[in-house]
Design goal:
The chain is mainly β. The protein contains no helices and seven strands. Strands 1, 2, 3, 4, 5, 6 and 7 form a seven-stranded mixed sheet that branches. A hairpin with a 2-residue loop joins strand 5 and strand 6. It is globular and about 35 Å long. It starts with a strand and ends with a strand.
Length: 90
């Protein structure tokens, strides 16, 4: 229960995969524009996901609109129960 902000800014030598589980609460994910992202999520009817600057690839996957213009891509897997996940750029 509560909220958290995950800031992925900084220098990235390597990228990989991040898994985030939210039971009850909210998470704000901040991504640098130099990094591309693919976000796969599973949510309940009591949860919400907000993505800015992403294209809908499939029913449960979003890709950043810069994914074809960057060298490094971070894959994010998000599972939510009750709450909100917001993804934005810094």
């Amino acid at each position: 229960i509560g909220s958290a902000t995950l800031d992925f800014s900084g220098n990235w030598n390597n990228v990989g995969q991040v898994e985030i589980e939210v039971g009850v609460g909210g998470v704000e994910i901040l991504l640098p524009r130099s990094l591309g992202a693919e976000i796969q999520f599973s949510k309940s009817f009591l949860s919400e996901i907000s993505v800015d600057g992403f294209d809908n690839k499939s029913e449960d996957t979003y890709v950043s609109d810069n994914i074809n213009r960057v060298n490094k891509v971070l894959r994010i897997i998000v599972r939510t129960g009750i709450g909100r996940v917001g993804i934005g750029w810094i």
